[in-house]
Amino acid sequence: MSPLTWLLVALAPLLALALLWRWPDRAAPWLWLSCLPALLASFWPPAALEPAILWPGATWGAEDMLARAWLAFTALLWGCASVYAGADLVGDRRRLRFWCCWLLSLCGNLLLIIAQDAGSFYVGFSLMSLAAYGLIVHQRGPAPRQAGRLYLQLAILGEMLIFAGMMLRIHEADGAFALATWQGVPTGWLTASVLLIGFGLKAGFWPLHVWLPLAHPAAPAAASAVLSGAMIKAGILGLWRFLPEQDPVLQSWALPLLAIGAISAFYGVALGLLQSRAKAALAYSSVSQIGYLLVVLALAWLHPESRSAAGILLALYGVHHGLAKGALFMGAGLAAHYRLRPWHWLAMALPAMALAGLPLTSGAAVKILLKDTVYASDVSQWSMLLTAGAAATAILLMRALWLMWQQQPGADAGRPPSTQLWPWLALCMMPAALPWLWPELRTALLASLPPGTLWAGLWPLLLAGAIAWAVQASGWQIPARLRRLPQPARAGSLRLKRLLQRPPVPAVAAQVDEHRWRTAERYWNRLWRGNAVTLSAWLLILLLLLGWLG
Fold this sequence. Notes:
Layout (H helix, E strand, L loop, with lengths): L4 H18 L1 H4 L8 H8 L21 H24 L6 H20 L3 H19 L5 H31 L6 H4 L6 H15 L8 H7 L2 H11 L1 H10 L5 H25 L5 H25 L4 H31 L4 H14 L6 H14 L7 H24 L11 H20 L1 H9 L3 H24 L5 H4 L4 H13 L13 H36 L1
Helix pairs in contact: 1-3, 1-5, 3-4, 4-5, 4-11, 4-15, 4-19, 5-6, 6-7, 6-11, 7-9, 7-10, 7-23, 9-12, 10-14, 11-15, 12-14, 13-14, 13-18, 14-15, 14-18, 15-16, 15-17, 15-19, 16-18, 16-19, 17-20, 18-21, 19-20
């Protein structure tokens, strides 16, 4: 394949946007094709492209496994979600605006993955983050408006911090833009702090997660799928790319970062269990799962000599979580509008339990790899938290499935359209199919087949099922006080809005001599009325003569 393929990967969504603007109804069903170049390039990556016309050092490509895996699942998820969203937007008067924001977000998401320089990464990241605002507020109303306002405030804050961190890294690297060069350049504590907070606001781990529980319930199901499955992982990818492989500052921060990842994993479960809407519970599940990705990043900082193995694990976990969470959010959208059959629920249970480590799925494979990595590190005593986390994740996702069941419409509701059913089913089957399509996952899955290992992965799920059954049988309800927990992030966002909307100090009216200006205007009107062409010609001749004389 030609290196120009990378240009097509980044620009295909913009070409689709141009076609959509010209033929909105005819182009919309085919927008998923804009993901095809990225999917093909992830399997057969060409040589890197250097579009020097943009800025010095601009380079696009996918040279390592992490970039190729990230590009593959991102293209697949966005493609399936594009087909799914097309059926949701039939008859929607604001569908053109939605598709514009959708394609711009897709363009930014693909660009930041293939970016090999800081400038390209930042442009893609900013385009994705800012355009996603239109997806969150698409359905209108107070809830989407408040969620979108908080998201935009934090997104702009994150962009400013990332830009500052990028400038500091460029200074540390003596002006180099190449991300590969940055891997060998030490960083300072200020640079690392700014980048950790900036990218953390996008990733959504605790305590920087405050926009996630508001944005996901407000956005359409397809938008929630790509927000949780693909976009929030850009923050983890940014930390991996921008910060060096081996650095004493990062090594000293590894244990606190590991603790933040563990807190995020269990905090997301605890808050998710208190939710009364399925998409809100799934949003907190994303907070929990991002905690595990943060654990992988912390282990890479703690043991930089095993960074390559940590990169493979990060790729596997990102693919597994992205596709499974996309299937669950799209399933929540189907459950809210259509009457699902028993086999639909069985299909939805597969990605849900795979996230908890169900044996013979991609979840079991990545959990085994993560446990092995923790065992081999200096924090092997933390391995019991992974087992407890599997049970906690299973309980939360059982709660989310139960909320979907309760929100089912009446028995007379129609069946899901095939344009939504088939892409959703394809994502649901991925946890079972991925281990057989990907050699690294297949090896880990085969290692989980001994009876002892199978039981170690199965009993946390059985325990979670027993706890869920006991709670349901007892008729226990969440106390009203816990269902109405305060939301300081929303209150702070509203306070900032009111502060910015205070009426400004009235400007002093300028004293203008209207009669004098009106007289001058009439004079020029009379001057140009009859001889405008002649005067213009003489002015051009005069300018040419002046240029010749100069």
